[in-house]
Design brief:
Number of domains: 1
Mean pLDDT: 86
Structural class: mainly beta
Distance between the termini: 57 Å
Oligomer: single chain
Length: about 160
């Protein structure tokens, strides 16, 4: 196939930081990126076969820290993506792979959630939480997708809920 030896690079970034509040100091810090290069090593078989369609980042590829204004305040973290250059056949997912550190354990987000262009509830919690590890997954990779660099940015939004 003509695509053997060419690379498709999928670049994901979760480096945006959003703090949402009117009167209180809240912040969410997101650190990490994932760059996936698809080449002949991702073929399902010999030259001419399709590509492996599902790829996952490392377990702790993205780390999230939530800083609340008080230890008893609860929050929600929503997630969405903003595409720079993204093929419509590619689907992006995210999940928590751990709890991070802090007094209260977050709730939800342990199963893969598809990230779309709309805010979707990812997980909830109470008080500060540091270094919550996240993992990303891409589905839909195929030789039918033109060779290019596809990029999107994951946006996390923190909202105080009490």
């Amino acid at each position: 196939m003509a695509r053997v030896g060419k690379k498709i690079a999928l670049c994901l970034s979760g480096v945006l930081v959003f703090g949402v509040s009117e009167f209180f100091a809240l912040s969410i810090t997101v650190a990490g990126t994932w760059t996936l290069v698809i080449n002949q090593s991702a073929l399902q078989g010999p030259p001419g076969s399709d590509l492996i369609s599902i790829h996952e980042s490392g377990l702790n590829q993205i780390m999230v820290t939530v800083d609340m204004d008080a230890w008893w305040h609860s929050y929600r973290v929503d997630v969405r993506k903003v595409d720079s250059n993204w093929h419509s056949n590619l689907r992006l997912y995210i999940r928590r792979t751990g709890n991070g550190t802090g007094l209260f354990v977050p709730s939800g987000g342990l199963n893969y959630l598809e990230i779309t262009g709309s805010n979707t509830l990812f997980f909830t919690g109470i008080g500060d939480r540091s270094n919550i590890p996240l993992r990303e997954r891409i589905e839909g990779v195929s030789v039918d997708i033109p060779v290019a660099t596809y990029t999107t940015t994951i946006i996390f939004t923190l909202t105080r809920t009490n």
